[in-house]
């Protein structure tokens, strides 16, 4: 996030929504829309299965958006007999929410690449104040609700998307999207830089958002007739502004183009043409293959087990059915009789001894083998959705469990989750921080920038529970090295000279994500050590002076004793020694 000295200027006049230039733009956008649809089509069949077997309430995958379609892509839950996968996806979503962007605990802080600069009190205070203001914006908006939806999409479909735009009431407003509703495109660095979405909107909503004058003739007539809930299909495209002109005063000067138009409308008029300073979309993927625009996740990995589980449940139900109501064998004489097998029914037959119903075959009165296979399928699904890691976290008291303890208990599992966390930071959280920071900076919602930070870049450092646990894995190596050196120093004290203790403490502190206020700055540490050395030197000098004074006193006392010792001939011991000297 670059820190600019002044906010960008605002458009001087409203954007034009019609004309030849707009008509050519809409033709190009419709061609791009068709191309993005074609690129998305190979994923649709898999997404439909994921919806049918795991997330029946999500996805817009059957047809293109249609006005008046009340189903909105929802499917009847006829293929789900066991909800293990649905619950596992919900558990993983909640786990990621609590572990990565919990509203109940800090999950990021701001810093600068220059650690010496970050330690300056003025800079640290400014970064902390900006972080606090951003947290208030996140809490006041629907950001956390949107993230919860994003995690569910990510766990199920392997790809999620959220549109984040400026809002005059809550600073930002987030719009979570579902699979099949949107299409994404990648830039040369394989990062999402394009989003097209098709959705249904009522005429009343369209008039409020875009202005009645910008709607089609049919939509305006419906509005005038009071049919405000009648629906139209709208397409929204966000992509790089390839014809950017910084000298213009409207959307043409901004790096990102944002266009809404009514699908199927003829002519050279758009509903709205705007621009963005930053790409306002996050589109994280759980995992991705090569240059694919869409990812795959636990839902796709678990799909074979999910299908097997539904088959086993259906088979078990048939077995139980046959056990409870087995197929019967009856004598031919009863072919014309009205036989009832209901409770308390009475059947009249000519010969009760021979006219009996009996099971066609004997069903074993147990389902243990099927139950075992069902349990294995359920466990496989839970493991795919990181159920063991979730259970480990849930089994501990969150108030007492530290990131280091998490890492110690689940180092192998955390390493498996590491690539997912890194990708999510890169494709979701980094853009979120950039988008919100930019909106707040342009809106004058940040404190004045310190002179030391002008021209510098601010970057996030993630301190969520999972981020800290991931970092804390590195503390194990530090503890082992320090322990080894400490043990060796008992036999060879000189080995301590190899250990840079100041650097070790700093690295350990950063890996744990502890507060920067816990450690003193280099200047303060140097001053403390200088004062300590001066105090030690002063104490040593005093000790030496006292020792010298004691020696002088002892010498004087000896001389006195010698002078008082008589040796005869009128001489004492001292004079005799001096005389002999």
Give the helix/strand layout.
Elements: H1 20-53, H2 84-100, E1 108-111, H3 115-118, H4 121-140, H5 143-157, E2 161-167, E3 171-177, E4 182-186, E5 192-202, H6 203-210, H7 217-224, E6 231-240, E7 256-262, E8 272-276, E9 281-282, H8 298-324, E10 328-329, E11 358-359, H9 368-384, H10 387-394, H11 403-409, H12 411-442, E12 459-462, H13 465-489, H14 501-511, H15 522-564, E13 566-568, E14 571-572, H16 573-580
Antiparallel strand pairs: 1-12, 2-3, 2-9, 4-5, 5-6, 6-7, 7-8, 10-11, 13-14
What can you see in these coordinates?
The strands form 5 sheets. Strands 4-5-6-7-8 form a 5-stranded antiparallel β-sheet. It has 16 helices and 14 strands. It has 581 residues and is α+β, with helices and mostly antiparallel strands. 49% of the residues lie in helices and 12% in strands.
Termini separation comes to 87 Å
Mean pLDDT: 83
Q: What pattern of helices and strands is seen along the backbone?
A: HHEHHHEEEEHHEEEEHEEHHHHEHHHEEH
Strand content: 5-15%
- Can you tell me the overall shape? flat
Oligomer: single chain
Main location: virion
Protein name: Portal protein
Region (Disordered): 1-22
Keywords: Viral genome packaging, Viral release from host cell
